[in-house]
Specification:
five-stranded antiparallel sheet, 13 strands, 14% strand, six-stranded parallel sheet
């Protein structure tokens, strides 16, 4: 596909930003099924948060165009082919991962209303409703804002300028792939949906990974691309689950137990499959120190904030302390990765544990330095659950720059979870 020509000749109806309800990350659907079963009556509010306030989204993106894209998403429903793929495909070695009652509900779903308001140079975009409905707004909302910002920059460029831009960006991706190809026993997946440059670009990057890395490329988090390119859909769960479960807790004792209740429900939901721990919502070390012994038997851990090497060391030591062999476990690195960090982490840990990588923004949105004023550089945009049944949610993270929630609640959570002094790190994405 000639992406530059497609961008230059852009027509909205040919290229809506979100093409399908399964143009989303696989873990969102897995979590949605768990919420549908375990917390069907919980009301949650999601809110867009631009951590990179120097990027004035409301000045770059026309409000009418944003509403048009969001309204289009509300018109989408599962196609017959998409439903068949979800119902009948094998995921992680299991057929019928999605239960019939969940699929019947999903097939009739239209996403609920949104609230959009301009506040200075930023947009306030929120979604409120039943948790299992509004949670499916997160990924498409992020993708829409990211791509509209890209289009605002690209619209000012001519045909040849666009061709050169994409040629340079393609060369950059391919050079990265060539360097990754040199790593023995590499296991890497695309995690780049939420902050991608565009759908077409993510699709191109996945195809490049398929050709360039062969079996070292294990799949993509994007369900639509996984279906179309016939690769594995990759993902398990995210911080959203412990954040909401914790907000629902009625006491400090229930709060301290909430992150483990999440994983207990997850274990029951998937009958022992998909056993990857995400421990950093309220601090990795404390989470593992207090974890029940049965969690040590799970398959692995995803490292998603803080110093990744330190996080891996904590995990390896925890497994050893619990009588588990780290060589039989998997550590998945997934926070703001690029090739040099992937090379270093693989060299440091591949002979001690099974190492995998989820490569996100710097695969699917690395246009740094390719246009004037670095106007296409990636930035940190998130869409988080901010309240559950009227109570605020909190995230502490291993990097305090990613903490969120009211100050008094952050202080309470730090006390309950025993979080002490933390090392601040720059948030790239």
């Amino acid at each position: 596909m000639d992406i530059a020509t497609r961008v230059y000749n852009h027509k909205w109806k040919i290229d809506p930003i979100i093409r399908s309800l399964i143009d989303t990350d696989f873990y969102k659907l897995l979590m949605c099924q768990s919420v549908f079963r375990n917390k069907p009556d919980t009301t949650v509010t999601f809110s867009l948060i631009n951590r990179s306030t120097h990027v004035p989204l409301a000045r770059l993106i026309d409000e009418g165009e944003l509403r048009e894209q969001l309204d289009h998403i509300r018109s989408l429903s599962l196609s017959r082919g998409e439903s068949t793929w979800l119902r009948g495909n094998t995921f992680y070695g299991k057929r019928q991962m999605f239960r019939p009652d969940f699929m019947e509900w999903f097939e009739g779903l239209r996403l609920p209303p949104y609230h959009l308001e301009r506040k200075g140079d930023q947009y306030e975009l929120t979604f409120e409703g039943k948790w299992h409905e509004v949670m499916l707004w997160e990924i498409p909302a992020l993708a829409v804002l990211m791509e509209l910002r890209s289009r605002a920059v690209l619209d000012k460029m001519g045909r040849f300028e666009l061709q050169v831009l994409y040629a340079r960006a393609m060369t950059r991706v391919w050079e990265k792939i060539e360097r990754l190809r040199e790593i023995d026993d590499l296991t890497i997946a695309d995690f780049g949906t939420r902050r991608r440059h565009s759908f077409l670009w993510q699709d191109w990057c996945v195809q490049a990974m398929i050709e360039g890395l062969g079996e070292k490329f294990t799949g993509t988090s994007n369900c639509l691309i996984a279906m179309r390119r016939e690769v594995e859909a990759i993902g398990t769960n995210a911080h959203e689950l412990p954040m909401v479960y914790s907000a629902l807790a009625d006491s400090d004792a229930e709060l301290s137990q909430a992150p483990y209740d999440v994983l207990s429900d997850w274990h029951d939901e998937h009958e022992g499959n998909l056993r990857i721990i995400l421990p950093d919502t309220y601090g990795t070390q404390g989470f593992l120190d207090r974890a029940p012994d049965w969690l040590a038997g799970w398959t692995g851990i995803r490292i998603d904030s803080g110093d990744p090497a330190k996080g891996a060391e904590v995990a390896i030591n925890w497994w050893k302390d619990r009588g588990e062999d780290p060589a039989e476990k998997r550590v998945i690195f997934s926070d703001g990765l690029d090739v040099p960090q992937i090379q270093d982490l693989h060299a440091q840990f591949s002979d001690r544990t099974k190492v995998s990588f989820g490569w996100g923004t710097l695969l699917t949105n690395d246009f740094r330095g390719l246009v004037p004023d670095d106007a296409l550089a990636p930035f940190s945009l998130v869409c988080k659950a901010v309240a559950a049944n009227g109570r605020p949610t909190v995230k502490l993270s291993d990097n305090p720059e990613k903490a969120m929630g009211p100050a008094e609640e952050i202080a309470r959570y730090k006390r309950v979870f025993g979080v002490g002094k933390q090392e601040r790190q720059d948030v790239i994405v």
